[in-house]
């Protein structure tokens, strides 16, 4: 888990929540997997935070797909998503295996945040928002989140 914790700390620009979330769960999983064919359990703080991330992206999805979102609005969206991720990480109560899997999703979201902030060289802000959307799809397919609504396309 150290590698995923380091990825979180680096991708989040050293945010306190990401740094404080490092647990020693052994080696980080290489890829996102189901729990013996089933979705991983979630808790209320995770579901709330992921719904907020989803709603933030969904609110501007037409502008994202139409390439009409300004740099300032991408930066604001990145701050909102990053804040939700900090809340998710700070309130982590998942069992270690589910937590390790969640770190893979969170790392992808934070990569998208970095691009939306304009910090990822050679990656457009729009691609960052789309990466967050892809991470949300992975979350939905690997974590049990009753009532989850997919992003509109």
How does this model look, in words?
The protein is mostly helical and 153 residues long. It has one domain (2-11, 44-142). Helix content is 62%, strand content 0%. The protein is built from 7 helices and no strands. Helix 1 packs parallel to helix 6, helix 3 packs antiparallel against helix 5 (71-90) and helix 6 (96-116) packs antiparallel against helix 7. The longest helix is centred in the last third of the chain and has 21 residues, at 96-116. The chain is globular, with a radius of gyration of 15 Å. The N and C termini lie far apart (34 Å). 36% of the residues are buried. The model is unreliable at 1-26 (pLDDT under 50).
How would you describe this structure in keywords?
153 residues, mainly alpha, 62% helix, 0% strand, disordered N terminus
Write a concise synopsis of the structure shown.
This protein has 153 residues and is mostly helical. Helix content is 62%, strand content 0%. The protein has helices at 2-11, 16-20, 44-59, 61-65, 71-90, 96-116, 125-142.
Helices and strands in order, then pairings?
Elements: H1 2-11, H2 16-20, H3 44-59, H4 61-65, H5 71-90, H6 96-116, H7 125-142
């Amino acid at each position: 888990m150290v590698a995923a914790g380091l990825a979180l700390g680096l991708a989040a620009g050293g945010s306190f929540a990401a740094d404080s979330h490092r647990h020693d769960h052994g080696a980080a999983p290489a890829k996102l997997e189901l729990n013996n064919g089933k979705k991983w359990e979630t808790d209320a703080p995770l579901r709330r935070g992921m719904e907020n991330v989803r709603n933030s992206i969904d609110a501007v999805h037409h502008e994202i797909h139409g390439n009409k979102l300004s740099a300032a609005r991408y930066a604001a969206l990145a701050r909102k998503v990053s804040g939700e991720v900090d809340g998710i990480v700070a309130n982590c109560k998942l069992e270690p295996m589910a937590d390790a899997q969640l770190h893979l999703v969170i790392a992808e979201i934070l990569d998208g945040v970095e691009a939306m902030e304009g910090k990822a060289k050679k990656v457009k802000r729009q691609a960052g928002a789309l990466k967050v959307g892809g991470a949300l799809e992975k979350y939905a397919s690997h974590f049990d989140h009753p009532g989850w609504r997919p992003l509109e396309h």
